[in-house]
Amino acid sequence: MRAVWLREFGGPEVLVPGEAPDPRPGPGQVVIEVAAIGIPFVETQVRSGVAPVPLPRLPIIPGNGVGGTVVEVGPGADPALAGLRVVTSLKGSGGYAERVAADTGGLIAVPPELDLHDAVALLADGRTAMGIVRAAAPRPGEWVLVESAAGGVGSLLVQLAAGAGAQVVAVAGSRRKLDLATELGAKVTADYTEDGWGDRVREAVGDAGVHVVFDGVGGAVGRTAFELVAPRGRFLMFGAASGTVTDATVAEVFQRGIALITGGQMFGSPAGIKALAEAALAEAAAGRLRPVIGQTFPLERAADAHAAIQARTTLGKTLLIPSGDLEVRS
Fold it and tell me: Would you state the pLDDT for residue 270?
């Protein structure tokens, strides 16, 4: 089968198309014919060798989140799974391929109302966004600041916070991205590449500041957002796309009474994480949540997909499509 290999850490060009043995299902596993593969930002950091997660031993076929149709069922697995449309995570590797073997315990059935591409776009980003919003519990009328508001997670956070009745401040790095956030429900927008963006946000929301920040960027953007949090507000840290986490001291958090919420408080157990993904798919199937798929690439062009994400020129979610049946949406 066709696959993409990572044999050394480096720039996008180290992602090299090649061949790999067809997977066979082990006990309690199935083989999935892959329709789409999601690329989260953290995979570009892993590929470069600088990531906020443990680095894998090479060589590997990278990729974690996939969706497709079950085409083979292994020993001990339910034969009725054959033909089922599913999404699943793969324990961190193996996803950039035409077919994958996956444990049945991680399979999530895709609702019939939902396109497989949309389901893959929601697998990782949807469960992340659902966990963040449930932990923050934004209330009607509260100001909620969303960093990277036109990204895969950010675009969902904008929708979920606005759907809860909150007033959303969308922060992103271009007018095109901010226009998308406005379309999704943001009331105030700010371009973090412009000097003084934090001051303009404060002018829009009032001197007290924002009640909630969803911080997936860290670095200077996260620090400015932290300074905008009102006393007794909530600051949720779930990523470091800038390469560094937000610098906030214990003394600052304590003095201002800020609730600092991190990953374990948002996502919980593996079963809880799977339930969040199922909830995201159900919301989309019901028409209450729209995944934004800004761009798709053929499997062989994984390097181009990584380059686009790393250059921050993408909107929403980026997918790899093994079949080459591409559809660009925004």
Answer: 81
Burial category of 315 from C-beta neighbours within 10 Å (exposed 0-12, middle 13-18, buried 19 and up) = buried
CATH architecture of 125-267: 3-Layer(aba) Sandwich (3.40)
Q: Are strands 15-19 and 2-6 parallel, antiparallel or unpaired?
A: antiparallel
CB 199 within 8 A of CB 169: no
Would you state the structure tokens that stand for residue 114, as one six-digit string? 């939902």
Question: If we measure between CA atoms, which residue out of 140, 141, 124 comes closest to residue 132?
Answer: 124
Note the pLDDT tens digit of each residue in 297-314. 999 999 999 999 999 899
Q: In this predicted structure, what is the pLDDT of residue 240?
A: 85
| Cross-strand partners of 293 | 316, 317
Segments of the chain with pLDDT less than 70: 324-330
Give the torsion sign (CA, 257, 261, 264, 266): positive
Per the CB < 8 A criterion, the answer to whether 226 and 213 are in contact is: yes
Return the domain boundaries, the chain.
2-123+282-321, 125-267
Q: Which of 162, 137, 116, 134 is nearest to 267 (CA)?
A: 134
pLDDT on residue 324 = 53
Quick check: helix, strand or coil at residue 300? Answer: helix
Class of domain 2-123+282-321: alpha beta
Distance between CA atoms of residues 314 and 138, nearest Å: 28
Residue at 135: amino acid letter? A
pTM of the model: 0.92
Angle at 169 between CA 125 and CA 214, to 5 degrees: 40
Q: Rounded to whole angstroms, how far apart are CA atoms 170 and 213? A: 10
Beta bridge partners, 100, equal 32
Burial 243-254 (b: 16+ CB within 10 A, else e): eebbebeeeeee
Helix (H, G, I), strand (E, B) or coil at 21: coil
Residue 93 contacts residue 63 (beta carbons within 8 Å): yes
